[in-house]
Design goal:
Layout: H1 17-20, E1 38-60, E2 69-73, E3 78-82, E4 86-104, E5 112-116, E6 127-129, E7 171-176, E8 183-187, E9 194-198, E10 207-213, E11 218-220, E12 231-235, E13 241-247, E14 255-260, E15 262-264, E16 294-298, E17 306-311, E18 317-324, E19 330-337, E20 342-344, E21 353-354, E22 359-367, E23 372-380, E24 415-419, E25 425-432, E26 438-444, E27 450-457, E28 464-468, E29 473-475, E30 478-486, E31 493-504, H2 521-541, H3 543-548, H4 557-575, H5 581-593, H6 596-603, E32 608-611, E33 615-622, E34 628-635, E35 640-648, E36 656-661, E37 665-667, E38 670-676, E39 681-689, E40 694-703, E41 706-710, E42 716-717
Helix pairs in contact: 4-5, 4-6
């Protein structure tokens, strides 16, 4: 990540003339040569309403630029300065001023570097220009000073500085009329303040001094060292006031200089004052935008350093960028959980940070043994659920909780989110602003492994009053919720959806309708008689049967006698020690060929009965005390292919099949029945091994090419 631009007004040293000629006017490059083989590199004309002190410097970036010359024409005076390496000119501009730069052919605009006074483009409230001559010398102690004091304070607290604008006097423009003129300027400040000042824009002949003045003395301070980037950075001196003194040699002439100064005071680091080592109970700072950098200063007198907290959220993936100008700051990073617990971040500010599920803030601690400026930039990637910060919570909010942690989504906008392997639920909030409520539904890709629920909540208790599986629902005015649940155990699940607002709920006024049902009375009578006539005819035909009390099943008496004999025979055969399988199979086939209802009627109430549109299953126990049962399966209109029945024990010991009649392929607890024809009945004799306390059944197969299962909802007590 690139370091952001400095908050201070830039002191650009290499500015093309299009920028440093700051007022209106055109700039042109002339390629035509004159008789002396020179070219006009640049020319401009500008207007100055008020007298303005200007300093211009032109550097040749080659070993030499022969014929390099600057011509400045004013209403009162013309200036011409020439030098093949460097040109400097101080003058006072007023009215129309013409600028021209020429050189011998072979020199172009790219070969030159320009510097010029920048104060004319700055905010007038941050500039002080020498009007009356400033003091030549720093006043002695006890002398009253009647001169404007410069206050270059930079007021931009870290917690509420929304727009970086100078709030003090940062630009100082002065002039030395000749070599005997000197200027002394007081810079206001307090011990512990940090002063920043780039090397002044001024002629090479001009010098600057730093002085300390108090009630008892004035002292010339040792020259401050310049950093590698050409700036003075130092603490405001103790026990006195800082003065700057500008001078040049007696033989020098008129000179214009420009100073740029910033003062950082610890009391303005935050709205509550200085950033200390302990953040305390203050609310964390908002998570910075990608274009925002958090910054501050540490001085040698601040041994404890600075601490800041930044709001974060659950499962955020953050890329930190912490730096200082000369790698003198030690950064430490901690995760702050919802209960206030701190945990170290490995690698501090050098590695990517993944917050925990209960993380609510990040804490940064900065210390340094020398004067240093720290900078912190944070980037969340990928972005959190629904574009919010971090992961959406996995539960509904409570009455005592703020809704800020639950991302609020808008209607008809695509919401992008994800779930990691450790999470299975995301909860979002939304607000219905229509007084009559809104008709809502979820529009989503059904192939994504998630399900959706819309919750209508009580606005006082936040209890769920109504819910839908993403389908149409009317939500009243207020705040409600959407719950997204992962289906399966995918390690990383991406999903997207829209909460579609179908419009306001419109209540229909009952007065808009007229009851005209009386117009259809005659039709209703006719239709009733017409539709009931066939039923009346059937009742008439069967009047004798119903009068005699025939049971619900019309079974011939001889059929009942045959089934009774068959049941008695089958029961006797199964009671014998040595059974004849052929005889048993024959008896079971005869049962299958008999009317299903007649068999059920004859064998009595089964231990288990399961009836659906496709199949009916009954089970009877044979010979109390023995592990033998009779299973009957009656198939409806559609055949069952690849049919199989499983016998299992929901509780207790496992079940195994010892014997099956008629003979079928079986293994363990499963019998393979192959194809069950439509409108057919199949009877099986099963012998059970093991000691299960109860027995259940599971019939499965293919019906019309689709898998189908019949599972009775209760088990047989086998104890």
């Amino acid at each position: 990540m690139q370091k952001p631009a400095r908050r201070a007004v830039s002191r650009t040293s290499s500015v093309i003339l299009m920028l440093f000629i700051f007022l209106v006017g055109s700039v042109s490059q002339v390629t035509a040569q004159d008789s002396e083989n020179t070219v006009t590199i640049m020319e401009n004309s500008s207007d100055f309403q008020d007298p303005s002190p200007i300093f211009i410097r032109i550097w040749c970036q080659k070993s030499s630029c022969p014929g390099m010359e600057l011509k400045v024409t004013t209403l009162e005076e013309n200036y011409t300065v020439s030098d093949p390496n460097r040109i400097e000119l101080s003058f006072e501009a007023s009215g129309q001023v013409d600028f021209q730069v020429i050189a011998n052919s072979g020199t172009s605009l790219d070969d030159l570097r320009f510097e010029m006074s920048e104060w004319v483009n700055a905010d007038s409230t941050s500039i002080i220009i020498e009007d009356e001559d400033w003091l030549d010398n720093v006043p002695s102690p006890g002398i009253t000073v009647n001169q404007e004091i410069v206050d270059p304070i930079w007021n931009c607290p870290i917690d509420n500085c929304q727009k970086i604008e100078p709030s003090g006097t940062h630009l100082i423009v002065g002039l030395l009329n000749d070599g005997f003129d000197k200027d002394s300027i007081e810079i206001v400040g307090n011990p512990g303040d940090i002063i920043e000042m780039p090397w002044p824009l001024m002629p090479e002949s001009v010098e600057i001094e730093f002085w300390l003045r108090n009630d008892s003395s004035k002292t010339l301070l040792e020259a401050f060292e310049i950093d590698d980037d050409g700036w003075f950075r130092f603490e405001y001196p103790q026990d006195g006031n800082l003065w700057l003194r500008v001078k040049q040699l007696p033989e020098d002439e008129f000179a214009v200089y420009e100073l740029y100064i910033l003062r950082h005071t610890p009391n303005l680091e935050a709205s509550w004052g200085e950033l200390s080592a302990d953040w305390g109970e203050k609310e964390p700072l908002p998570f910075p935008t990608e274009a925002q950098t958090l910054m501050g200063w540490i001085s040698p007198s601040d041994s404890e350093g600075d601490t800041i907290r930044v709001k974060s959220a659950s499962r955020m993936e953050i890329t930190p960028n912490c730096w200082d100008r000369f790698d003198e700051v030690n950064f430490e990073v901690f995760l702050i959980s919802s209960n206030g617990t701190l945990s170290d971040v490995e690698g501090d500010c050098t590695n990517a940070i993944t917050t925990d599920v209960d993380t609510v803030a990040l804490e940064f601690r900065m210390t340094s043994e020398s004067l240093a400026e720290w900078n912190i930039a944070l980037t969340e990637y990928p972005k959190g659920d629904a574009g919010a910060m971090g992961d959406a919570p996995d539960r509904l909010w409570l009455d005592s909780e703020e809704l800020g942690s639950w991302p609020q989504i808008s209607f008809n906008e695509t919401i992008n989110a994800r779930m990691s392997g450790e999470e299975f639920v995301d909860v979002y909030s939304f607000e219905v602003t229509s007084a009559n409520g809104s008709r809502l539904h979820i529009d989503a890709d059904l192939t994504q492994p998630v399900s959706y629920q819309i919750f209508v909540l009580n606005q006082e208790t936040w209890l769920i009053q109504n819910a839908s599986d993403g389908g149409l629902i009317d939500a009243p005015y207020g705040v409600h919720a959407i719950r997204v649940e992962k289906i399966g155990d995918a390690s990383l699940t991406y999903y997207d959806f829209k909460l579609v607002n179908g419009g306001e709920v419109i209540e229909i006024d009952p007065d808009l309708f007229t009851d005209q049902s009386n117009l259809f009375t005659d039709y209703y009578i006719f239709a009733g008689i017409f539709l009931l006539a066939p039923a009346l005819l059937v009742i008439f035909w069967n009047r004798n049967r119903w009068r005699d009390g025939l049971g619900p099943i019309d079974i011939e008496q001889h059929e009942l006698r045959r089934l009774r004999r068959l049941r008695e025979r089958l029961t006797a055969l199964l009671a014998e020690e040595d059974t004849n399988e052929q005889v048993i199979d024959s008896a079971l086939h005869q049962l299958g060929d008999s009317p299903w209802r007649a068999v059920v009627e004859d064998w009595g109430e089964p231990l288990l009965r399961h009836n659906t549109e496709q199949v009916e299953i009954c089970a009877w126990r044979i010979n109390e005390g023995k592990a033998t049962m009779l299973i009957g399966i009656h198939v409806s209109d559609d055949p069952w292919e690849l049919a199989a029945m499983r016998v299992y024990a929901p509780e207790g010991s496992s079940v195994n099949i010892a014997e099956v009649s008629p003979r079928h392929l079986f293994n363990g607890d499963e019998i393979f029945l192959d194809t069950l024809s439509p409108q057919s009945s199949t009877f099986l004799r099963l012998t059970i091994s093991g000691e299960p306390s109860n027995i259940g059944f599971h019939l499965s197969g293919l019906v019309n090419g689709e898998p189908l299962a019949a599972v009775p909802n209760r088990a047989i007590d086998w104890s």
